[in-house]
Amino acid sequence: MKNKKISKNTDVSNLSSSLFMSSAISMSWQLAVTVLVPLFVGVFIDEHFKTSPLWTLIGLLVGILMGIIVVWKAVMNINQVAGKNNLKIKNE
User: Fold this and answer.
1) How far is it between the farthest Cα atoms of the chain?
2) The whole model's pTM is what?
3) Helices 8-49 and 54-84 meet at what angle, rounded to 10?
4) pLDDT, tens digit, for every residue of 69-90?
5) What is the DSSP string of 23-90?
6) Preceding omega of 53 cis (within 30 degrees of 0)
7) Distance set, CA 15 to CA 9, 56, 80, 81, 86 (Å)
8) Is 29 left (phi over 0), alpha (psi -120 to 50) or beta?
9) Number of Cβ atoms within 10 Å of the Cβ of 33
10) In 3-state terms, what secondary structure has residue 91?
């Protein structure tokens, strides 16, 4: 069998793809939890105290704010890892 010679560009491409996929998977479940939990808690409180839609809307707003924080942290993490590995992120 011949040994394939892997170029540095291929290694960087594989690392970039792995970084993107792991970040996307992590961010997707975090977004689901941070948005849905406050929303469901708001619905539960509204049903219990008959205050609909007050707490549902508050839960939704809290969930959206938490979702923004999750996305922000994920972007900062990607930039930090990319910087450590000297990866160039294209802004196209």
Assistant:
1) 72
2) 0.75
3) 160
4) 999 999 898 888 878 777 665 5
5) HHHHHHHHHHHHHHHHHHHHHHHHHHHT-TTHHHHHHHHHHHHHHHHHHHHHHHHHHHHHHHTTPPPP
6) yes
7) 10, 41, 14, 10, 11
8) alpha
9) 14
10) coil
Distance CA 86, CA 92 (A): 19
The Cα-based distances of 63 to 29, 48, 83 in angstroms read 13, 20, 30
Q: How far is CA 87 from the centre of its chain?
A: 20
What are 11-29's pLDDT values in tens digits?
667 777 887 888 889 899 9
